[in-house]
Specification:
mainly beta; seven-stranded mixed β-sheet; four-stranded antiparallel β-sheet; 11 strands; 0% helix
Length: 126
């Protein structure tokens, strides 16, 4: 079993920054593919960013590319999402996810992940 706990959400004005963190326990982060997804009210969950087990593959949604950065800290067993130049449309609950698969063909698909955190709210005011 893998437990994921997100932190770092909050209220920020448009143009501001937040850093989300996802602490993993139960398994070494170096053995997990990690992803971030988000869900806004009334909308379906959508992919935000993902990083492969070895860090050699990183993907971003087009809407966040150039503004968000995903990174792994294997020593702390955590994955981070640095979010800059935030926009009101970034408002959502952000979820961390993990996959124990040896290989994932598509890191951007939510159904490829085995474990999910409880989510952290990010609100960007206009």
């Amino acid at each position: 079993q893998v437990q994921l706990v997100e932190s770092g959400g909050g209220l920020v004005p448009a143009g501001g920054s937040l850093r989300l963190s996802c602490a993993a326990s139960g398994r070494a982060l170096s053995s997990l593919h990690m992803g971030w997804f988000r869900q806004a009210p009334g909308k379906e969950r959508e992919f935000v960013a993902a990083i492969s087990m070895t860090g050699d593959r990183i993907h971003y949604a087009g809407s966040v590319k150039g503004r968000f950065t995903i990174s792994r800290d294997n020593a702390k067993n955590a994955v981070n999402l640095q979010m800059n130049s935030l926009k009101p449309e970034d408002t959502a609950v952000y979820y961390c996810s993990a996959s124990v698969a040896i290989f994932i063909a598509t890191l951007t698909r939510g159904d490829q992940y085995d474990y999910w955190g409880q989510g952290t709210q990010v609100t960007v005011s206009s």
